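Changelog excerpt

This revision adds worked examples to the README so contributors can see how folded entries look when concatenated. The first example is reproduced verbatim below.
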Amino acid sequence: VRKVECIYSFDTPESPDGLFVSLSNYQGFGNSFVDLDFQRSEFPLYLNMRWKKIPKEPKENQEAEAPTKMAIGVEGGFQVDEELFDYEKSNFLALLPDRVLIPLPNQELPELISMVIDGILKASDLTEDEAQVMAWEDKRQVSKYAQNLVQVNNGKKISPDPKTWKCEESGMTENLWLNLSDGHIGSGRAQMDATGQMSGGTGAALNHYYEQKRLGNEFPLVVKLGTITAKGADVYSYAADEDDMVEDPKLAEHLSHWGINMMQMEKTEKTIAEMEIDMNNKFDFDKICESGKQLQTLSGPGFVGLKNLGNSCYVNSVVQVLFSLPDFQERFFKKAPEIFQSTPSSASADDILVQAAKLGTGLLSEKYSKPAEGSEGAFVSPQMFKFLVGKGHPEFSTGNQQDAFEYYQYLLEKLERGERAKKGSEQLLSRFFEFEIEERLQCKQSGKVKYTQSKEKQLSLLIPLDAATNKDEVQSYEERNAKRQKNEISEAEKEEPVKAHIPFDACISSYMKEVVVEDYLSPATGSKGAAVKSTRIKRFPKYLCVHMRRYVLGEDWRPKKLDAMITLPETLDLESLRSQEHQPGEELLPESASGSASAGPVPDEAIVRQLVDMGFGENGCKRAALATNNASAEAAMEWVLQHMGDPDFNEPISAPSGQSQAGSATVDPDAVEMLCSMGFAKHHAERALRETGGDIQRASDWLLSRVDELDAMDVEEASQPAPQPEASVDYQPQYDLVGFISHIGSNTACGHYVCHIKKNGKWTIFNDRKVALSEDPPISMGYMYIYQSKGLK
């Protein structure tokens, strides 16, 4: 049942004419689209739901409390707008085409019709029921070690006086962690500062855990002294299968073992969440969201906000930037009526192109561009779109915060599948973002070269912290901040953080620099030696996505944010990145050492195993090893971090071209029969086995992850449209910045996303439902940027 919102528009029961829900297909239609459904179905009965807003009594002014957790819309977190209205609900039976309205309930209606109406009213809306709408929060899991935690009876008791606490190894008196199993007090791990350096701890608590583990003891849980209050404390699990902040439901009991009474403790240090919030609330949040400024609210077509569904700011930011591009507006706004007309009502809610057209119409038309009563700006709710895009995806189908960059990649892939299934003659939208990479590899033994091409939809750039132009200022700030944490400087003397300033040219130079590949097996000499590899762009796209790799693995293999300021220009010239292609006088490397077809390279198992142990998928790790010519685990890790968002990252690796294709075309009949017994069609089972090299377990996973897309894939495979000539078009490498997305938070699994878009020559901030004229766009703090080429080459 779809009874919350029209499947073609953002009309709801709150709209002037309400929402019409068909008693035949149970889909909801706004006033502008109910006639379209009636013409198709010729079924005249609809439940017309109408809700009238009734203002709530205003609450007394209360001073807002400072946030204490990394969350939005929950107690203790950043607060968002709350509903200011209650609703008076009326229902009617509508008879089409004359729209005769019969008030409900009505005792004279046939029993069957009354039963259907009652069923619709009681049913939960499909989108709301399955979307798992949650508040944004950096949640912690309950440790599995807490229930039966070993606690040693060694006679040790911990004084409640913080002045007596110190690291048993170094004597440090800050960032102290108590091991709940044996009472050891040790310094926490060093933290990465704005320069990328590790400081603020010795890691004694972690070293103690490893030492005890070497002796056969599993003592994983530690609590941060100074954060203990009656409400809880920071607890960390060093266990390899958790290695994260956790909840300990028996914390009071575990602390009492060491003589600590939670109810009497007072906090003397900031929790991990409060340290993150302190940075976000005082600097990033203010800068990126332009808080504290009297921004001019904007409304009208193209200035419509998107409601935050609890964790949809990553969706909202990506969508707003993409739908500001001319090709998206042409496809999903101007041609929206054609898409609506060509798709049956029963299939529209699950059609990605229909839902994209609905969203485009909502953002760009006049209809929803005026603020509703009691609202500062105009906005729509992308609930059906978010649900459909995420359906079947292990991450985007949840209510958790996600990586906006990964969502951008996945959304383009999802739209491409929908376009292929419709067999349209237009250029695929994803092709406008696609560019061709050329990699040049030169064997140092023979001097011969090899050129390989690949396609990308994003330019991912490393952030070279050693290129900071203000190293001294950053170092000085870090020293002052360290004293401040030791209470050598008063809280009143706090200052705005000093972040490393990195020239964008340094990021481009890092991308262009030659990389030495050790132990390269040269097909020219047949022996291992050094090779040099460099990357350039052979063909430029119309829209260039520049992704700043702000999130990397630190020395402790945990995600870290490189919180630097990068001076990206609003006008970009990338001519220096253009490839020179094969030059006269260069001799090409042979395809293989023997000069004949071979089975192709094999990924180094040691490298693959190291990456798999870090939690990455095996197929992706194999790709990384092959892409770096089995150079080293470090080189492969760099490749993983750059490509882990690729749509085919975890897909099985295709057989090398030198291998016989006959084997790949033949599948085990018994395996096919087993998959068919699970309910899959024979041709689907055969394709899954071919795609996964005959591995029945992987084939099963392949099918289950695509269960909603198999029919569309059949259409795509059968149609095999001719190559589109536009796909090879080359654009000028001169670009204008269209928009950028910024992230607030320590990692992409929590935090908040905001985007800024240049419209009519002026920057506009899109912060979920709030749209306003930007006074100071934080271009240097962006996470991903979209540039538009000045034209065809």
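The second example, added in the same revision:
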Amino acid sequence: FSFAKRQKRDTHEANMNHAISSTSLSSSSSSSFNEALKTTTMKKTAFSAASRRVFNVVFSAPKGQNQFSTTTSVKATTTTSSKSSSKNSSFGFGRWWCLTSQQQPKSSHHRHLLRNTFTKQLSFFKASSSYSSSSSSSSRAVTVAGAASSAKEAKTSSMTPEEIASQPRWELERHFEYDSPNDGKIDREMDAIETQCKEFKAKYEGKLKAGENNLLLEAIEMFEEIDIKLTRALSYVSLASDTRLEDAKMQQRKAQLMQRYGSFQGNFLQWFSLEIANLEEDDVEKQYLLHDGKLKTKYKAFIEEERRSKPYNLSKEVERALTVRSAFAGKRQVVEFYGNELSRLRFPMKDDESGETKEVNMEVLLAKMTSSKDTKTRRECMNILNEGLVKFERTCALSLNMVAGSWHIENTERGFKNLRSQRNVSNNVPDEAVDSLLTAVKTTGVDLCKKYYRLKKGILKETQGLEEFTWADRNATIDIGTGSDSYSWEQAVQICKDGYEKFSPTMAKHFTDMVESKRIDVPAADGKRGGAYCSSSYGCGPFQLLNFTGTQRDVATLAHESGHGVHFILSYQQGILQYHPPLTLAETASIFGEMIVFRDLLERAPSDQDRLQMIMGKCDDIINSVVRQCSFDAFEAKVHEKRQNGQVTPEEMTEAWKECMVDYYGEEGDVYDSYKDTSHLWAYVSHFHNVPFYVYSYAFADLVVGALYGVYAKQPEGFEEKLLDLLSAGGTKGFVEALAPFGLDPASDTFWSDALTAHLGGLLDEAEQLAKKLNYQK
């Protein structure tokens, strides 16, 4: 790929992997959404299945060439988001590499997380009238560590194997029109695509300049046609493989097709982006005037995107070599090895029912820690997690050294001016905007963060008798309301449907269509990728992969990923080359939906206790997606800076992690009484490996949506139409242009600090007032 294409590919993979850095570590639980559900009753309505984009494309070397091959069956890593999703998340063959959301990721690119499903009736607050509720999803808290989810290990669910098997599955064959991943039709189509790729290169290479033939429009149209065909075949196989991670032949089939795609890209397609980037401005302007202006009207955003990478592109020969070799050598294989080994980690956990100690995966351990209302249990889980990661540090350090080293070489050879410029260019965000965001979070955000945790510490002491506030208590629920902790799939669907209907009938209709047309793979089945994601799968999508276990977080995940799905559906009209929104806007639909539903449920809260519980949970979410993610960014910066001078040891990484915790949360004794068992939590944030310096996107998105919601709260009339226009624009509008109709100016020096004060600060003020009223704060 050209630089831009390679960045899109990596971001796509991140969004898929987007899950890991978002919840377990950063957010652990979508508290606000969880507590909102607890204070509401809802009708039980049956539906079937639903959506989200991105697939983690993994190139594997032929047998005998992968030095990191393992003896067990292949299990691809999960990651996130992821939320995320960025413009670089999901494009066609250069683009369809996808993640957010995400986002994931992670992430576009946005992978957001889960497991099985409950079928228990909801019992909510007493003496309350019954009504259909809406829901709010916590995009950032929506993912736990990744691994092939194990339904057998998911003790947080009461589902039997039979109940799990009865949950809705996506119907890929119906939508993609293939019989199976081994369908000979796929190979025949790939043969035809290869022939078309050769014709494309022979016909247009070196002939894009304005002149006698003016072939730029014609070439883009053929490129787009190839893109759509490749996306269809490769999306299908990639999605299908994510529910069959333990099937070695399935993974081999996927690797075979991905390697073949790499050959197409390197030998016949990669030149196209480079030539568009290198066209003189006059050549482009002259061709804009031809063909009744079709080139400018239909493809201007695509052309401008390609041309932004011009200063950083290398020669055709070098770019081709990088593309062809990436399937067999380089950091990707090490990063994939890290992800696979992470997914295989097992931790000793005592079963609450039998009293026996069992080996469980990270998702199960984290689910127990984040859902427990007992501080002793939370601390035991934190200790088990950290001790397990200590043994994993060398594998993680190897991968992170490879990533940071590669990033340094790329920055140097391509001429980027600072550590984040490479990511910022691919996201079409000015360095200054990102620097301004990080500064605001490090100052205003950290101050609000400390203020919030002091309040939470006091409430936990009053309500749970907490004597020492530790890191294990960071995401503890303020359990003073009433309600159920488990939800059936039908209930989850109804909650999300009602939530979208509350704000936008258009969005609700698209959500229902995704469910009814079997575009969601719901159950936490064995051999399935952990976490959750929404794949755009242009032309056939979108599709959601979930691991639904009936938890409140699972409902949040459905709402969030469905937001991405709706965003894709609305933006498909822009065509495969321009439909995907930029990083700065990719989380708009999903997070904004959360805020709408949260505020609606808050108004319906039956008591001040329930209201305080919901607000505290929402503050948890915002801090985890804003302050927490920016602390991750600071850790990355420290590691990358050290890497420029040589290998970084695991001990140095651990020290950098500790420094960042102090910078963003204060010294021990300031807010937290102890940072015990936190030394190696850096070892399972997969965003560091899959998409360097991507994590700030979560903060970016959350604060943008916070600013948008402020506009909506003041003037709801006409807001839905403006928002749908923004979502429908896909990648054709930049950040500043897209926000202008809402009266927002992100170029303002105070935009981020103002957003933090209004978004987080406003909620914190409400929480403090309620805490005093309820005598939880002196």
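Reviewer comment on example two: Confidence is low (pLDDT under 50) at residues 1-36, 38-157. The two ends are 60 Å apart (CA to CA).
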